[in-house]
Amino acid sequence: MDPSTSRPAVVIDNGTGYTKMGFAGNVEPFFNVPTVVALNDSFLSQPARNSLKGSTSWLTQHSAGVMADLDFHIGEDAMSKSRSSGIYNLTHPIKHGQVENWDAMERFWQQCIYNYLRCDPEDHYFLLTESPLTAPESREYTGEIMFETFNVPGLYIAVQPVLALAAGYTTNKCEMTGVVVDVGDGATHVVPVAEGYVIGSSIKSISISGKDVTFFIQQLMRERGEHINIPPEDSLEVARKVKETFCYTCADIVKEFNKHDKEPAKYIKKWKGIKPKTGAPYSCDVGYERFLGPEVFFNPEIYNKGFKTPLPSVIDKCIQSAPIDTRRALYKNIVLSGGSTAFKDFHRRLQREVKKIVGARVNASEAKFNNLKAQPVEVNVVSHPIQKHAVWFGGSVLASTQEFFAACHTKAEYEEYGASICRTNPVFKGMY
Amino acid sequence: MILLQAHSRYLLQILQNRVQNLDKGVELDCHWVEFDDVRYHIQASIKTPNLLHLSVSLPTPPPEIDFSGGLPLGAIEALKTAYGSVVHILDPPKDGFNLTVKLNLVKLPNLEEMKQNLLVKIASVREVVMGAPLRVILKRLASRSVPPNAAELVPLLHRPNESFFIVPQLEKVTVVFPMRFNDSIDTVLATSFLQEFVEARRTAGLNNAPACLWSSTPPNELKEAPQQALSANAGFVSFVISTRHVEGKKLEKTVWSLSTFHAYVNYHVKCSEGFMHTRMRRRVESLIQALDRAKLDENTATAAQSKSFKRLTIEESRGNSH
Predict the structure, then answer these.
(1) Is A317 in contact with B321 (Cβ distance < 8 A)?
(2) CA atoms within 13 A on the CB side of A348
(3) Does B12 touch chain A (CB under 8 A)?
(4) Nearest Cα to A2, choosing from A175, A169, A93, A123?
């Protein structure tokens, strides 16, 4: 019996902004670190050597500092190290869901496995995630890194929206058909999934994501003059924390402005912080940002980015572009995932707006065909407490099923057929 | 990161979070595995927010080592010395684990620095338990007392079904590791890594380090060892530890470094493979550039297409919802 199957699999969800990692069978990821690597590139700036004379080039690197290639940090450590000392350069290996810098990604995984999770990669099966519409070559490179460098016994690369759907496994009978609205830090995608397979041609993405909400809040606070209190290097950090602590989704913008103006004491909150350099405490007011932040998704024109389509109509357009027989099922199961969907009442507002659009269309078609009454379309936006880590949780659930180990690509297959086996990752029985 | 750290990062995170929110405890039930097959399970309930149940399972020992009561020799005493009243050992341990302890966070010292130090120590429970027999031997070396089993071969647990060997003597302790690897590439890299160890020891500046030897055949100290312990595809490494390596604070570090030597070598072998990957990629890129230059210039106007093997991106489809 392969001992690796008796140990929990390692689930790593690499996103553009944050990476969630942990072991299968647990509810929450162990670590949620920013996907950033701080590299010390000073030893790489040697004049390019055309002839690879082994001893000379190694000697220069050796004199540049022993273990210079191990001199890097990831995650929170990386961000603080790059702020404090100048020799570290920050790189984001993943941009818009795609891995751009494979060297940095390999080092990132190496630190995840050895420093954070502290497991031996040869002992565990791995479940990694990827964005939909990733090129198959990218899966090949991932497989190559995992099998060659880390000698993992088995690997499965799952698509993030399918895992987000699987996260609803425990709440209701698992539906593998639905639309996943994944609003992350770096990218927002609306992905229709039918029977576990992503309908690639209908994927819609919008350029507003969690980072934009943070910028917007920072902008609003600056316009109101709050920034004189906040130390400038922290203002983005403060905006992010304000977003996570105080923001909520309102039902109607105009009414909300009135509510705030009538009862300021009830709605305006104070943010208290400590200046890092002097240690002095400061506080600033948080007012309209509380509901204007998440409003960016429903009325993008307030953010002034040249992008005008609100999220509910993007979802509607996405479903309308999907095959006609799947549309009712898709409307019935709109699943939210990603940290930026965790605003209070986000799902209620989204459901109302999508219902409005669908209702308008049904009424218009009924008016055109006089007597024919259509069956009402059920619109349902599903939200559950694990939304923030829905993808990771779905991965954890899937990697705990017995069928997972059979569906993985094993090292033996890799040695026999090569990296091209990683191009396809079948949807397996455990997902149903 | 060059050396593997002694404390479990996740365990430390849990402890620090709970200590900061002592009154707002949440349900906790996690299990995870560390290298060398050490499993942990931690459990906490809302009703008793300051109590945590931590269970540890150790790798199965090879036949020549005997675990009395499921734990290595001296583990229970080591736990009591290190943690005091914060930790209460539960007997019998949870099903499937070698050790279960109840942590009472209220009993932590009040001084912030001492509290943090003790939390780090608790997170290093693996080092305390698995390194107990080694610590006993090295403490005797530090105090220069005659060991009862002088010049005798002592096997200690290293990895599942594998052990490493110690010959304790009055002035020095010789430690021998048989190194085994599953993958053939790893074996080759590890062999040259270990031989390099011996070479590097000779450079000036490392004179105070323990003497280090590598051989592909079992050294003399292992002549009484059981047969199956003597097969090692990456050779045998021996260190000679003397008194100055185990004085004071260095004892803990020495115990940890020796107990997890194989994991350390494994980690560095993987780092070397990663680094070689980087160099290979750079080489491939330079070769592709050479290929590009060799291509016939059909459209010199399209100078923007400098990369011939363009990787597919979703740049085109991003923001396509217009």
Answers:
(1) yes
(2) 8
(3) no
(4) A123
Question: In this complex, do A103 and B278 lie within 8 Å of one another by their Cβ atoms?
Answer: yes
Query: Which residues in chain A are closer than 8 Å to B159, comparing Cβ atoms?
Result: none
Pairing of strands A88-91, A94-95: unpaired
Average predicted confidence (pLDDT) for chain B = 81
Best of B10, B284, B321 to mutate (most A CBs within 10 Å, chain A): B321
Query: What ipTM was predicted for this assembly?
Result: 0.85
Task: Report the phi/psi class of residue A279: left, alpha or beta, with left for phi > 0 and alpha for psi in -120 to 50.
Answer: left
pLDDT band at A98 (very low <50, low <70, confident <90, very high): confident
Choose among A110, A118, A205: nearest Cβ to B274: A110
What is the pTM (predicted TM-score) of this model?
Answer: 0.86
Greatest CA separation for chain A: 87
Amino acid B301: pLDDT: 45
In three-state secondary structure terms, B286 is helix
For residue A167, what are the contacts with CB-CB under 8 A and spacing of at least 6? A335, A337, A384, A386, A390, A391, A393, A394, A397
- Distance, CA of A198 to CA of A269 (rounded, Å): 42
Pick from B34, B281, B317: CB nearest A133: B317
E-strand ranges in chain B read 28-34, 38-44, 51-57, 87-90, 99-104, 154-159, 162-168, 172-178, 211-215, 236-242
Amino acid identity of residue A30, one-letter, is: F
State how far residue A48 is from chain B, nearest Cα, in angstroms: 11
